[in-house]
Structures are given as C-alpha cells and as structure tokens.
Write a structure and sequence with these properties.
This protein is an alpha+beta fold and 114 residues long. The protein contains three helices and four strands; from the N terminus they run ββββααα.
C-alpha cells in the first residue's frame, strides 16, 4: 500500500485510494447535516485485483482521521467500516445512536444516491 495515495473527493462523496494512476478502492459516503454534522460511510469497494493489500483498512483509518481533523463524528452504515471500527476502538469512537438513526433515515430518503 505504500504507493497508494488516499484523497477526499468531497463533491463526489468518495474517499479514494489511488495507485498507479487509477482508483483502486474507495469509500462512498455522505455528509449528514442534521441533527449534527457527521461523515456517513455507506460502501467500501476495493477493485478485485487489489484486494488483500490493506486498502480498505487504510481507507477506513483515513476516514476516521479526516473526521477527527474536521471535528465531526463518523456514523458508519457500511458493514466493513462498522467491523473496522469495532476492531479499532482507539481510533473509532462509538457513534451516537441518534446520528445513526438520522443517517439511516437520510439514506432511505435518498435511494438513488448510492
């Protein structure tokens, strides 16, 4: 993973892992605004040729680091990010259940977004 760069494409709602000039993995997310601002990851995708290289974990780690830099929580809906957070509680604080409920409601209200 050392040659892979992670970049945030906020407008597209993607945290991307780029290696060799191509996107090799991504976390698709949205920014929840109410009841509080939060980053909400919905899907983690790693291209099949790049699986098993730690890309998904690096993306999850950077998502939490990005949220910390912005002073906002993460409300994970993506099953991979949920499991990653459980394995790394020192980097991934628990999410307020109200934020999770609001994130799920937002996703239901925007079925075409993901």
């Amino acid at each position: 993973m050392s040659e892979t760069e992670i970049r945030d494409d906020r407008a597209a709602g993607r945290l991307e892992a780029v290696g060799g000039g191509e996107v090799v993995g991504r976390i698709e997310y949205f920014v929840l605004e109410s009841p509080a601002r939060a980053l909400v990851p919905v899907h983690t995708i790693v291209e099949p040729a790049h699986e098993g290289k730690g890309i998904a974990g690096s993306l999850a780690r950077e998502l939490y680091a990005l949220a910390e830099r912005e002073g906002v929580p993460v409300a994970p809906l993506c099953p991979y990010v949920v499991k990653w957070a459980e394995r790394h509680p020192e980097l991934a604080p628990p999410t307020d259940p109200t934020l999770l409920s609001s994130a799920k409601a937002w996703l239901r209200a925007h079925p075409d977004r993901f």
